[in-house]
Write a structure and sequence with these properties.
Number of strands: 5
Strand order of the largest sheet: 1-2-3-5-4
Largest sheet: 5 strands, mixed, barrel
Number of helices: 0
Structural class: mainly beta
Order of helices and strands: EEEEE
Radius of gyration: 16 Å
Helix content: under 10%
Shape: globular
């Protein structure tokens, strides 16, 4: 057991904002932070490029993404599942 580590990969839930690339989607993940001085909640977002092997995701879908090894220059996340399909 010496030298063994259990690595828990980071996961995020976000919305697909672009699916124009082959096998890649851009996922926007929003979070709320509190302003240090005024204590107001502020909405912040990050955009992640995620690998979508089957190209099943469409713009507006809620997806679960997980951290992975680097797949390309910018792509370090993988789509695990589609939580909610976008309203047509």
């Amino acid at each position: 057991m010496e030298g063994e580590k259990t690595v828990r990969k980071k996961t995020r839930v976000g919305t697909v904002v672009s699916s124009k690339m082959q096998k890649t989607v851009v996922v926007s993940v929003e979070r709320l932070i509190q302003h240090e001085q005024y204590r107001k909640l502020i909405r912040r977002s990050n955009r992640f490029k995620a690998h979508d092997e089957l190209s099943a995701c469409k713009v507006g879908d809620r997806v679960l993404i997980a951290e992975s090894r680097p797949l390309s220059k910018d792509k370090r996340w993988v789509v695990l599942e589609i939580l909610q399909k976008a309203a047509q």
